[in-house]
Design goal:
Distance between the termini: 44 Å
CATH topology: Alpha-Beta Plaits
Strand content: 35-45%
Helix content: 10-25%
Number of helices: 3
Radius of gyration: 15 Å
Shape: globular
CATH architecture: 2-Layer Sandwich
Order of helices and strands: EHHEEEEHEE
Number of strands: 7
Oligomer: single chain
Structural class: alpha+beta
Length: 128
Amino acid sequence: MSTWTHIAGCIRFDGIPSLGGPLSTMHGMKDHLGATCSFDDDEDAWDKCSVPCGSEGSLQYKIIRAGDGMVLWTVAIWGDLRDYDNVEAVQKWFDRITTDSQALIRTAIMHVQVGESEPVIMQWKPKE
């Protein structure tokens, strides 16, 4: 029987496009979040995958341009990772993308559950 890890999250990034910066473009955001892979992808895509990944593919995300106000991007995150139970690696990825000096976070939260175990809630908190 397989172990499944279910992930759902949302991160809202602030930014002002006219000021530029690495996270002001779609390409910059994809670089920041990392490369994903899916079950049907070729070996090259699997080799480049840099986000938490199970035996049938990685977590996925969709970057949504929120508008021209302070909230620039909303990122929806999800995944059903087969044969994967490394909550620490998911936490490291979440911490990296939310604490990077280039990232201006408005809000961020992720729900991670391995099998039937107690869910782990990851929440970004501003530095005091």
